[in-house]
Amino acid sequence: MKYAAISHFSHPKHNLKYDYTEKPFKCDGCNEVGIGSRYRCSNDPERCDFDLHAHCALPSASITHPFYKKCTFQFLARPPGNERRYCNACEKDVSGFVYHCRSCGFDLHPCCAMLPMVLDDGETKLFLYRKVSSSCHRCGRKGRSWSYRSSCKKYNLHVACVREMLVENWRELYKGQNEKSTERKSLALKNTLEHHHRKSSKGKVQKCCEIAGMAVQFVISAVLGDPTALIAGVVGSLISRG
């Protein structure tokens, strides 16, 4: 559900207004990157510079997840305890808003907790798995974080790897250093995919990279918490270029 304006406990002085941006922002709730839909301070955005993902702005008090059938995750404004904690979906640090299971100790970033179990554009389907036995097409490793896997089971992509790619690209964009870095690093990922399949025929490599481009586009959108984010499509198309 989308609201035009909300009040939020994390920013009590001013209301937050719904906004859409094609520029990256840092969510002041979970401290992760965002793009697209957000809730932004309505008083003086330039001075306050306060933003929240939609998932962080409108959280549920508690959730369940099909990967952890015995768990109930409670929404917390900060991770419990003093020890360093990480998200069980993407393996990245948890430093802000989090869904936490007190009985099992599991943690999920709000956007990770809401990752769709199936990504489907009508032609390509990707299914979310807690663990897969095949290697990731970006890092070449098995295991690690949650993964999206194609229905043919020949393509796997770690959620953690997409997170890393986003951080690499958006950090420079967020600081306004060099917008061309997105294209360079996205194409570098394409080269990684081609290297991973260097023993395959050229046609198979091209097809794999086309699937990779679509998959990354889907997963980027999901990880960012906004499947309508246009820049996700831009990155995906860059990766899939031959």
From TrEMBL:
Cross-referenced SUPFAM superfamilies: Cysteine-rich domain
InterPro entries, per database record: C1-like_sf, DC1
Domain DC1 as annotated: residue spans: 9-57, 74-113
Keywords: Repeat
Domain of life: Eukaryota
Membrane-spanning ranges: none
Protein name: DC1 domain-containing protein
Native source organism of the sequence: Microthlaspi erraticum
